[in-house]
Design brief:
alpha+beta; two-stranded antiparallel ribbon; 4 helices; RT_dom; nucleotidyltransferase; RNA-directed DNA polymerase; RNA-directed DNA polymerase activity; transferase
């Protein structure tokens, strides 16, 4: 039994300060790279373009820019560790999809394990 989570909208919800903390504390990114990543994440604005009319610019407070080369690796760093929250399920991560699964002859046991994993994922995400 498996559960697939499409986390494509999660790019907009990444807590930048937690990501920077993980980059430094967990992955040992330091030197010039850490302030560069911080600037990449923190100095972002956006506007809407509709029929060649631009809206006002707004500052982003959270999230990772979508479509940038660095965004996917940063998102992967951000969600690393999620596998600890879905035990005893097995976990797979690819791009913006998280999958976890378990095998057992007892369907009720598998359902219970996956439901527990979903609750744990929710705790991880908050």
């Amino acid at each position: 039994m498996a559960a697939f989570l499409d986390v494509s909208k999660a790019f907009d919800r990444v807590w930048k300060y937690k990501l920077l903390s993980k980059c430094f504390g967990v992955f040992g990114i330091e030197g010039k790279a850490l302030p560069w990543i911080s600037n990449f994440l923190n100095h972002r604005n956006f506007c809407a373009n509709f029929h060649a009319n631009l809206s006002d610019y707004y500052k982003t407070c959270q999230g990772i820019p979508q479509g940038c080369v660095l965004s996917q690796p940063l998102f992967s760093l951000f969600i690393s560790g999620v596998e600890k929250y879905v035990n005893p399920s097995q976990t797979g991560l690819f791009a913006d999809v998280v999958v976890f699964w378990c095998n057992d002859a007892n369907i009720s046991k598998m359902e219970s394990q996956l439901n527990r994993s979903l609750v744990n994922i929710q705790e991880f995400a908050t």
